[in-house]
Amino acid sequence: MKQRLLFLGPPGAGKGTQAQRLAESQGLLHLSTGDLLRAEVAAGSELGQEAEAVMARGELVSDALVLAIVRSRLQSHAGGWLLDGFPRNVAQADALAQLLEELGQQIELVVLMELDDAVLVQRLLSRGRADDNEAVIRHRLEVYRQQTEPLIAYYRERGLIAPVEAAGTVQEIEARIASVLG
Ligand code: ADP
Question: Measuring CA to CA, how many Å separate 59 from each of 67, 69, 71, 136, 148?
C-alpha cells in the first residue's frame, strides 16, 4: 500500500476524519497543519499568537510558518506519512517538493476528496469550530478555489491525483480511499 500521501480537497470534505483513521490503521504519521496550528494557538505560543487572527478570518497563515512546522516533523520521521491541509497553494507545493528532495522521499499519491459546496457548508456549520461561522466558511471556500484548487492540475500533471467521492458514510468513504491506495 502507498504510504507517502497527501489529502487534498475543500474544507468540510472530511480530510481530517479520513486521514486520522487511515493513519491509525496503517501506522502512518498524520500531519495536519490545521491541527498543529490550533495546538499552537491553544498553547499561546509566539507562533500561535501570530496565526490566531489569520485563522479566525479564514485566510492562510504564512507559507514560511507552516513550512517550518512540516519540515521539523518530516525531518525527524523515517516511516510513511499523510499530509492533511498542506500544501495549500503552489508555493507550498514547490517548497514541499524541495524538502522531499532533500530528504530523498517522494509523494506516492494525492487523494482528492470531492464534495458539493452545499454539503460542505452544511457540514462545517454543524461542526461549530471557532472559524466555522457562515461568513468565514464562505471565505475559506473562496480561498480554497483561488489558492488550493490549482494544486489539482499541479499534481495531475505529475500523475498523482486519485479522486474520491466524499459523500456517504465515514465507512463508505474509507473503503473508497482504501481501494485507490491499492
Ligand atoms: P479546513 O480543512 O476546514 O480548511 P484546517 O484545519 O485544515 O481546516 O485549517 C484551518 C485554518 O488553519 C485555515 O483556514 C488556515 O488559516 C490555517 N492553515 C491550515 N493549514 C494551512 C496551510 N498549509 N497554510 C496556511 N494556512 C493554513
Answer: 16, 18, 21, 9, 12
